[in-house]
Amino acid sequence: MPIEPNSNLQHWQHEHAFGQDQKRRGELRTIIVIVITTSMMIVEITTGLIFGSMALLADGLHMASHAIALAINAFAYIYARRHAHDIRYSFGTGKVNALAGFAGAVLLAIFAMVMVWGSIERLIYPIEIAYNQAIMVAVLGLIINGTSVFILGHDEDHDHDHHGHHHHHDHNLRAAYLHVLADALTSLLAIVALFVAKFIGLVWMDPLMGIVGAILVSRWSLGLLHTTSAVLLDNQGPAQLEAKIIQCIEDDDNRVVDFHLWSIGPKIYSVIISVLACDPQSPEYYKELIPSNLGLVHLTVEVNEWIEEDYGN
């Protein structure tokens, strides 16, 4: 009996927003930090121009670069939410989160290279430092950035895998967090270097701390590039989750002969499974074997019958 064109098929269909139309916790936090960072940037640039302070002006321009990076993170949240129901996105807009995180990681890497270049230049061509003014700027920067780190890092969205490694599902929030953490670290290292240079006379400590900070920022950047690129390139999902799904199927005396698990957004996954069974059931039967709390939002099951005489022992 053919299916009528005007038949009600809603029972077998589902939408692909997968919760991406909901406002994420990181969105408001990122916007608050943007306001703080931009306000501080305006104050530093203005006072730097009025008082002729290069230290204040340089730090203000540095703040501006991170305000731009944070604006990318905020845009990603809003874009993903507003386009969550756009049918052009086959699996929703969850990967916008990872894409913004990847962009943030690239900017962090560029920031680290600029830090190294500037530090090497200072080592080769030392300049006179106005210590009191520079320390004041660094302390003020540390207070502002420390506040931002607390806002973005408080109750950060993560869990652990079976090896004990962190999995930061909100890569966009992670990128914003690392940007302000990099700023806070830079300010802290600058304070230490400036005090050592002022009271002990080791002027080279200032550029050396810049290089140390750049190495740490580079490590954060590489870590974020690794996790976000894995999502963007559809790497196989967490091994622990894969083992759990396969066990649920095979405990029912079946064999999983083909398996694809990949992330399509923060904490949500798509799965394609090919099952070999001696007594094949409907795909729905095998779907019900898998717990509903694993974050699987798009599950496809292919069922094949095992016929021993066709394949031998």
Task: Provide the descriptors you would attach to this structure in a database record.
about 325 residues; mainly alpha; Alpha-lytic protease prodomain-like; Alpha-Beta Plaits; 2 domains; three-stranded mixed beta sheet; two-stranded antiparallel sheet; 5 strands; about 60% helix; elongated
Quick structural overview:
The protein has 313 residues and is mainly alpha-helical.
Mean pLDDT: 80
**Number of helical segments with 4 or more residues:** 9
The CATH level-2 architecture of the largest domain is identified as Up-down Bundle
User: What structural class is derived from the secondary structure elements?
Assistant: mainly alpha
Computed Rg: 26 Å
Write the CATH homologous superfamily of the largest domain: Cation efflux protein transmembrane domain
E-strand count:
5
Distance between the termini: 40 Å
The unreliable regions are 156-168
Run of helices and strands: HHHHEEHHHEEHEH
Q: Major sheet: size, sense and barrel closure?
A: 3 strands, mixed
CATH topology of the largest domain: Alpha-lytic protease prodomain-like
Shape: elongated
Q: What amount of the residues lies in strands?
A: 5-15%
Share in helix: 55-70%
Strand line-up of the largest beta sheet: 3-4-5
Task: Write up what this structure looks like.
It is built from nine helices and five strands, in the order H-H-H-H-E-E-H-H-H-E-E-H-E-H. By secondary structure, the chain is mainly α. Strands 3-4-5 form a three-stranded mixed β-sheet. Strands 1-2 form a two-stranded antiparallel sheet. Helix 1 packs antiparallel against helix 4 (131-153). The two termini are 40 Å apart. The model is unreliable at 156-168 (pLDDT under 50).
